Amino acid sequence: MSRILLVDDSPHAQRMGERILSEEGYEVVTVSNADSALIRLEDVDPDVVLADVVMPGRTGYEICQYLKMSPRHRHVRVILTAGVMETLDQAAVARVEADATLTKPFEASALIAAVKPLAEAAEKDRAAQAPREPGTVARVPAMVAAPFVAVVDEEQVRAAVTVALDAAMDVMADEIARRVLVALATRKPDAVPDAAPDAAYPPAPAPATTSAPIEAPQAAPPAPPAPMAPPAPMAPRIETVRRVTPLRHRTGSILGLDISFPEPESSETESD
């Protein structure tokens, strides 16, 4: 069964289109903007794209132009949709080579009548492009394709990066956790800083709060100047006294001085 990609920023239009087409047996994928549609093209691989021409950012005209200029999606049929109060630019419709146009709100018979023949034609073109023999690859005719940068902007790149990060988040978390565990396991014991000296003492309990307001303490009056201390008494001066031994007067001395020589010590003292 054919797959339909419905691009519309209106939740009501998404619900109505999905309900009508699902009841006819189509597989329907809905997105809210053109950037999401361009990202989902590869995994949805639709046969028919219904794109609103009035959306924030890129419009259905730009989606149609990209699909018609892409060799990978040349079998896709495009239906441009617009509300009752919105005007379809017929010149732009012809320029982007849209396959059909449709007015919202969707009417079941009109929507099915527009989608069914285009879905059948897309399936035939897809079968014609498929390899006829196992192991062969279908060749794409050489044609000038619009550069991809024509429809890629900052918002589309951001959306693609977000999808890639979401897919790789589990792997990144596991790798970061593994490195942290390895770093903790190889950390030296002496590298752990000692506990602070105040850690052994419990914190002082907080003062109990009372209902009465706490008044700010008044500033204490300045203290009177302290009296000057009396000067310390000076220590008495001590002078060195030299003791003089008086000379002994002997008769056998010269000029009254004792010139006797000391007697030699006894042999007992020497022997000792």
Molecular structure report:
The chain has 272 residues and is of the alpha/beta class. The protein is built from seven helices and five strands; from the N terminus they run E-H-E-H-E-H-E-H-E-H-H-H. A five-stranded parallel beta sheet has the order 2-1-3-4-5, with helices on both faces. The model is unreliable at 136-152 (pLDDT under 50). Helix 2 (34-44) packs across helix 6 (154-185). It starts with a strand and ends with a helix. The protein is 37% helix and 9% strand.
Alpha-carbon distance between the two ends: 137 Å
Sketch the major β-sheet.
5 strands, parallel
How many runs of DSSP E, i.e. beta strands? 5
Gross morphology: elongated
CATH superfamily of one domain: Response regulator
CATH architecture of one domain: 3-Layer(aba) Sandwich
**Unreliable parts:** 136-152
CATH topology-level fold name of one domain = Rossmann fold
Q: Cα-atom Rg, whole angstroms?
A: 54 Å
Q: Helicity level, as a percent range? A: 25-40%
- How much of the sequence is in beta strands? 5-15%
Summarize the structure in short.
The chain is of the alpha/beta class and 272 residues long.
What is the topology?
Layout: E1 3-7, H1 11-23, E2 27-31, H2 34-44, E3 48-52, H3 60-69, E4 77-82, H4 90-96, E5 100-103, H5 108-129, H6 154-185, H7 267-271
Parallel strand pairs: 1-2, 1-3, 3-4, 4-5
Spell out the key features of this protein:
single chain, 272 residues, alpha/beta, Rossmann fold, five-stranded parallel beta sheet, 7 helices, 9% strand
